Amino acid sequence: MPADDAITSLIQAGRAGEAFDRLVPVYRRRVFGLAYSLLRERAAAEDLAQEVFVKLWQALPKYDGRAQLSTWIYAITRNAAISALRARRRTVSISDPAVLGEVEAIAAAPAAGDDPALWRQVETLPEKQRQAVILYYQDERPVEEVAQMMGLPVNTVKTHLHRARASLAAALTADDREVA
Question: Is domain 1-93 classified as CATH 3.30.70.20?
Answer without folding.
Answer: no
